[in-house]
Sequence to fold (566 residues):
Amino acid sequence: MNNSSRWQKAISAWAGLTPFLLFCLAFEIVPIILLVRGSFLDKSGHLTTAHYVDAATPLYLKSIWNSVKLSGLTAAIGTLLGVFIGYNIYRWPSKRVQELLITLSDVTTNFAGAPLAFAFIIVLGSNGIVTQFLLQYLGLKIYPTFSVYSFSGLTLAYVYFQLPLMVLLIIPAFAGIKKEWRESATNLGANTFAFWWNIGIPILAPSLLAGFVLLFANAFGAYATAYTLTGSRLSLVTLQIGFTITGEVLHDPGIGQALAVGSLLIMGTCIAIYQVASNRARQWTRR
Amino acid sequence: MQESKQPEKGEVGKPGWLQVLTIVFFLFYMLIPIIATYIFSVATRWDKTILPEGYTLEGYTEVAKNPYFLITLKNSLVLSVLSVVLNLVLIVPTVYWVHVHLHAAKPLLDLLMILPFGIPGVVLALSLVQVYNFQPIHRSPFLLAAATVIFTMPYMYRSVSNNIEAIDIPTLTEAAQSLGANMVNVLTRVIIPNIFPGILSGSLLVFATVFAEFTLARLIVGASFKTFPMLLVEYTRKDGTIAAGLSVISFTIAWIVSLLILWVSGKGIKSTSDVIKAR
Fold:
């Protein structure tokens, strides 16, 4: 085969991707690039960092901090509880129960947004059933220290979809720890702690990191649950960007762009770390 | 199949009390909000007692009477079906093409399929509304459908590509050709039936995700094309019983679709890349 026909073949092969690539360019890549570009331009098209300076005021810095705090906290709780619960599901003696619990995690991790927010109002609102149960049977008055419409309520609602996601992510990692390694370690005199400290945790580490950053991104980008539950009572960065689109609050569109670029950087970093960490993790889970 | 795999030595028999306690906590956390919503939707009054004071279906008759109920249901169905169709047209041929003719493009495809997870819904909505600021596409349902396809194509991609990698396309194609099949026959009678489970579970996942989608719908189109989740959010602030009825409907749809997907794909544990979601 000569060179020119090989080129023709390559070109026609790549041409088959045209519809898909055009779609991605038109509705994802070009709009995002223009958004980033726009965040550095003033009204007359000159380069400026003014939008970022405007976005660095207490109101918006607070919204970024709230988002980071909420994402970090729910990712940490989700990771810790998820690993613990995932391990106990993995060790459960009955295969059928295991499968049921995994199915439950699979379904519930999709229950985000408005229905979930409303379910939490029913359970933990000021007249919610758990609120009433705690008050009447245990004499525990959780309001007004706790409120489902505030940061604490949002934390519990986010953990609801973070926890099963971590369970689903970590169970394959436990399956990657071979029984033989445990036996060999025991034969060589390692106790349970020594096994986990020297072998188990190092093997799980990439999966834990991948899980944590994925959960962080998952919470950071969320909008619907927070919008339904808190409205505008709690300032989160996604809610602030939303306001610049709907115009509910008088906003400078440039600030929205600057906040959007900031969120893209945070989420992009998370997803990049996720990719690297989950590739490392795969060397143990691949059979 | 029961007891076929014992994860650890010495674990045969009963689970420990700490293990039971952990799982009970997990079940409570995951199930109480859902069960409470189902009960609340048929309760007359439920704010003073542990169990409701009475039961009624009034919430559902109110839901059915609401003029927006059918409109939003129809809008959400149209949007979901449109997204599934666009995904089928764009993604399935692309996955096939890359697998068979252009393996060199696989890393690019993988990258493009992870990218949506790094973009918050609000950011994509903002960028699309600003770029497409001309009629007829500005704030139109079509722009919304394009955005939902961007966020759901990874699900279709994973589902179809896992399936396509599990079958031996060159051998199947040669076998069919040696029996006298032309290329159209090979595709419609050999390849597509073999990757149908992947296409079906991908479609179901896209359908369920778009049906529950709120962020893009609210921010790209707004009130002129009200979707089912938008109606639900509106009623969480207006009428608890109606909101409960609507929540139950969306929970039920999510349950049915998830169980259908599990049934179609026939596997319990998904690989890590299958479970990541854009919210």
Summary: The two ends of chain A are 39 Å apart (CA to CA). Chain A touches chain B through 111 residues (CB under 8 Å). Chain A has a mean pLDDT of 89.
